[in-house]
Amino acid sequence: xxxxxxxxxxxxxxxxxxxxxxxxxxxxxxxxxxxxxxxxxxxxxxxxxxxxxxxxxxxxxxxxxxxxxxxxxxxxxxxxxxxxxxxxxxxxxxxxxxxxxxxxxxxxxxxxxxxxxxxxxxxxxxxxxxxxxxxxxxxxxxxxxxxxxxxxxxxxxxxxxxxxxxxxxxxxxxxxxxxxxxxxxxxxxxxxxxxxxxxxxxxxxxxxxxxxxxxxxxxxxxxxxxxxxxxxxxxxxxxxxxxxxxxxxxxxxxxxxxxxxxxxxxx
Length: 267
Ligand SMILES: C[S@@+](CC[C@H](N)C(=O)[O-])C[C@H]1O[C@@H](n2cnc3c(N)ncnc32)[C@H](O)[C@@H]1O
Hints:
single chain; Rossmann fold; 13 strands; globular
């Protein structure tokens, strides 16, 4: 993983800068969250229905709103993220709102250094996570390691088919199949588009078969898989709300897969 160190470092700095804007953004609506509203949207909420009393490891938890929403549902949550600002903000929200959760700043790939031999009933990750990870084989190994026997992994993320497009220009720009790292420079962040923020970032696109094969190769059993023709977040350029909390991308009216959900069990 040494070859990716400088990519991770650039992305960490980018996520620090984004978090400063995200925590005050209308998009994340921290005010409503503080008043008791869950930040979990329907797909995740439905899949993580029965988590009261369960231990849950939340990978790439950003600044912790979903982790804390899961804690409000009764889970014992550990959230990890590479961003210092993300983890600082998560800890401060947890303390201010008196919602118990543990937050640790770490790269996904370094979790063994902080979690040792612990294990969890659930491992969970969602929306905008897999593209920051170069190596899904190692990712799946860690998910398998940190699940208890009988434990469940849940991922809900943007569909790799949608990642093929340049959303602003509405044209195909990226390979569906993983061809290595992409570099991009953005002028703002999805949650605060009105504010200028120059962001350089490195990302990787992983096909659905690459994602599933990595999990299957590590002995996890797939128990649920679904694709959705909308995103619950208005987070890309050129999205339209077709009904409440259902956004579709592009002006051509063609039904694209926007999001997928996948759950596995460790036998
Ligand atoms: C789009 S956010 C996840 C969104 C989250 N569902 C939310 O909206 O609250 C992606 C997160 O991945 C984190 N991240 C990126 N690369 C990472 C890595 N290698 N290890 C751990 N976290 C990483 C970023 O810091 C960021 O907080």
